Amino acid sequence: MGDLGKEPLKPVRASRMFSAITDQLLEYVERNSLRAGDRLPREADIADSLNVSRPTLRQALRVLESAGVLTIKPGQSGGIFVRSDVIPISLIQDPAPLEVDAVPALLRTRHLVEPIVAHLAAEHATPDELDAIAYTLELLDKHRGSQELVERIDGMYHRRVAIAAHDEILRVAMYSLYRKLLPLRAQLNEHGPSVDHMIDVHTRQYEAIRDGDHDQIDALMKETFLDLELDAAVRLDYEFRWCLTEPRQS
Fold first, then answer.
1. CA–CA separation, 45 vs 139, rounded Å?
2. For the segment 156-212, what is each residue's pLDDT rounded down to a tens digit?
3. Spatial distance between the Cα atoms of 14 and 201, rounded to a whole number of angstroms
4. Whole-structure pTM value
């Protein structure tokens, strides 16, 4: 007989499979730094790689096409192409409402995880990954007149830094963290940092990651955290600092 006092198991929703497919496709686009006009693998190859049926995959592709992420061209010379450099917020934002009590915990987690990710990116980012991060700065500058696009590109910047850290567990944690942060950032948007300030901080952080300057990354993290935490009235009494325990091998 089961223990009725324990939290019960919950049924697995069929929609999770569908969401997993769209998430995988979006991650494929971001991991490979695909831009508008770039081609994805053939439908049959994607279905085989994901181990899903082609009808199920087509449903996910249609959703991404309707959202403006992909373009699907029929015929022998057609294929699946990236339509937009920027992923819509509706596809990457956590749909569950954020409880007020959860905000401090969310910001504490960010305070611990995000610096580690930036420091690891400084150690492990490849030239292609650095180029992908730099491209998000170009997009921020290009779309500085659209607050919505700027917020989407800001998330894109952080996800690409997470990819460059080369730590799968931390990458998943950062993706989840920013999905939950998006509604909070939108809620506090009226008092948030200006686009110029965001571009300035992100540019200096990118340069520090590119140059492997851990002291500068630590200093910039204080600026990165300050705006959102002040607006959310959350005060954290600790900070993270990078320290190598062993000399780096030459």
1. 31
2. 899 999 999 999 999 988 888 888 877 666 565 554 557 888 889 899 999 999 999
3. 41
4. 0.80
